[in-house]
Amino acid sequence: MKTALYAGSFNPWHLGHTDILRKSLMVFDKVLVAVGKNPDKATFDYNLNMMMSDFAPEVKSGVVENHHFEFLLVDFIKELAVKGTKVDAVIRGLRSAKDLQFEQEQQYWNEDLGIEVPTIYFVSDRKLVHISSSYVRAVNRYEDAKKIKDKIAAGWPH
After folding, report:
1. What angle do CA 80, 85, 86 make, to 5 degrees?
2. Is the pTM of this model over 0.70?
3. Burial status of residue 126 (CB atoms within 10 A of its CB: 0-12, 13-18, 19 or more)
4. Which among 47, 74, 64 has a CA at the least distance from the CA of 4?
5. What is the CATH number of domain 3-129?
6. Cβ neighbours of 113 (radius 10 Å)
7. What is the pLDDT of residue 81?
């Protein structure tokens, strides 16, 4: 059984992530989706099961597993191995040449830190290349601000 690790901050999970996970499931028997804590990004409350609701049958059957980690990816892969889960590849998604450059540098760092499994890249569906967690967060902030403004205009909180 071939197992892949799809790790990221997924802050928040969006259709681009769903696309990459779907493609990963076409190649691997099992995909571990691991939310990592990125010290450079604001933390958020997440429920990965809810975010991946499109994959409920796969989660239920164990083909997709949810994980969380707060340390280096190499240490997480070693922790999984100690617990009996061998990771055969790390999954990364690409939207553009800019992403490729960033991911390639990250792969080299991971290799220098001791990750010995290959990194497999999946290219995003062309209809989704404009979607990023940063833009989703920005739209959500705007929508939240608009809701508050509308409530105030309607006389809220009175």
Report:
1. 100
2. yes
3. exposed
4. 64
5. 3.40.50.620
6. 11
7. 96
